[in-house]
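Page 42, continued from yesterday. The earlier attempt failed because a stray header line got pasted into the input along with the sequence. Redoing it now with the clean sequence only.
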Amino acid sequence: MSKHIVVIPGDGIGTEITAVAQDILAITAKKSGLNLNFEVYSAGGAALDKYGEPLPESTVKAAKTADAVLLGAVGGPKWDQVEPKLRPEQAILGLRKALGLYANLRPIRVFDTLVDYSPLKPEKIKGVDILIVRELNGGIYYGEKGQEGDRAWDVENYSVPEVQRIVRIACQAAKQRRGKVTSVDKANVLFTSRLWRKTAGEVAAEFDGITLDHMYVDNCAMQMVLAPQNFDVIVTGNLFGDILSDEAAVLTGSIGMLPSASLGDGTGLYEPIHGSAPDIAGQGIANPVGTILSAAMLLRHSLAADEAAATIEKAVADVLAEGYRCADLYKAGTTKVSTAEMGKLIAAKI
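This time it went through. Structure tokens are written below.
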């Protein structure tokens, strides 16, 4: 049976990196006996220019009926002056809400051949393989907010069911990994964190073979730099997850390497964690690996094609091991390649 993939290139380098990732998906599908068909839709600044809104209903409708969505990146200075509700970034929030996405998975894996690119010493970073599971549609970002005169407020709140479902995803992921979950909160100060901690403990107890520990967010931020090898799966709320995942991204040496998956009640959404990088758009120098690895996550989580996903991941590792680098990782002794060339090298390995 054919699987339907909606591709949303977005803005800036989004068009370049999604084109490469779509080719990789098509080649992998052919090798693996999968039947994929692709449709391209607009969102972000490109949609604002074309349709007068950042997230057209046609894109939402297509995403809801698709088997998976592959997204590039949205935004750029061109649209900085538009009113808040029309900003390109509203497309991401709108898609998350429309698709019922509440779990953001960000794997932070340091390839052996890229150990020297990390700001940390090799002995601290070698072998790091962390999965951050961030709650995506609750917490302070979605709570009551406002301003009156010289006073402003943003309310943080979580319910037990919201915490239960995200911690279950973290525990399920840990069962396929090393069996360790670190729940991150600020329970010494926040009532929401106390509820989070209590609920996380109850959920983890449902899973055999899972070790759960709790960590305050400030200590977690410190330990991620001091001893990142100690982490397996980290689960946390929206605000803390936003901050910690960006900190963790730096460990790998380039944000261009990192994928993500947003999962929940509807169609899964897959995208690299970086932005649209308008300063290098159209030059063919963007690193497509984060998007290619997002495509691998798409195969694993939305199509249950683990072997096909692993094929892509091995191809990426092999090309990096041979010394090929895009501009963000290029240094003496390696071979600089363009966006398209990196895609072709990975495709050839597949």
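Notes: The radius of gyration is 20 Å.
Reminder to self: strip header lines before submitting.
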